[in-house]
């Protein structure tokens, strides 16, 4: 039992750095080490049983990186910019893939727990996983295929312009037809 008390005291000492925990302890009258352990246990239970884990993963994957991205914008250093730009590409990749394979994700056990662990690895300053991914894999891949990517984007831009023009013309034709139909209906009502 002394070992447990000793570990709790060590944890309490580490948590003393965070004023928000001191305030939570004052408000709830629950020691901050128990608040943190309880929160961690609740998080673990939610992760294991998958209750709200998709939303929680998205929230964790967004809040801290958004704040750090804002800080990176305000600094003159380029290193943190790379870290956060690559992180957002990774985050967007997960978000887009999940839209299309949402039904399949239900059958992958602990998908969101793995995603959360991956996003934490990618975002945390201790690991700088996003920067590692960029320097190890993406940088060479993108440089090697830069002309192909530029060509694909140019084709997409050209095609989307013609699609937008065709869509606009079709919408205009429909609107004109609808207006003339309404107009002739109103004229028929006046005649009768």
Task: Characterise this structure.
This protein is an all-alpha fold and 192 residues long. It is 86% helix and 0% strand. It has 9 helices and no strands. The protein has helices at residues 2-15, 19-28, 32-49, 53-74, 79-100, 102-105, 111-123, 129-144, 146-191. α4 (53-74) packs antiparallel against α5, α5 (79-100) packs across α8 and α7 packs across α8 (129-144). The longest helix has 46 residues, at 146-191. It starts with a helix and ends with a helix. The mean pLDDT is 83. It is a multi-pass membrane protein. Its main location: membrane. Belongs to the DP1 family. InterPro entries: TB2_DP1_HVA22 (IPR004345).
Main attributes of the structure:
membrane; Protein YOP1; 9 helices; TB2_DP1_HVA22; 3 domains; mainly alpha; transmembrane; 192 residues; transmembrane helix
């Amino acid at each position: 039992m002394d070992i447990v008390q000793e570990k709790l005291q060590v944890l309490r000492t580490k948590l003393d750095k965070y004023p928000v925990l001191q305030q939570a302890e004052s408000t709830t009258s629950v020691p901050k080490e128990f608040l943190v352990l309880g929160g961690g246990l609740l998080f673990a239970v939610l992760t294991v049983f998958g209750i709200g884990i998709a939303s929680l993963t998205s929230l964790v994957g967004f809040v801290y990186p958004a704040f750090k991205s804002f800080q990176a914008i305000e600094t003159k250093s380029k290193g943190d910019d790379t870290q956060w730009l690559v992180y957002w590409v990774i985050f967007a990749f997960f978000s887009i893939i999940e839209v299309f394979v949402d039904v399949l994700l239900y059958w992958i056990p602990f998908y969101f727990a793995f995603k959360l662990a991956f996003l934490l690895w990618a975002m945390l300053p201790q690991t700088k996983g996003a920067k590692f991914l960029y320097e190890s894999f993406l940088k060479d891949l993108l440089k090697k295929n830069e002309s192909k990517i530029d060509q694909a984007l140019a084709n997409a831009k050209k095609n989307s312009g013609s699609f937008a023009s065709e869509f606009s013309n079709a919408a205009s034709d429909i609107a004109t037809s609808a207006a003339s139909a309404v107009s002739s209906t109103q004229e028929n009502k006046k005649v009768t």
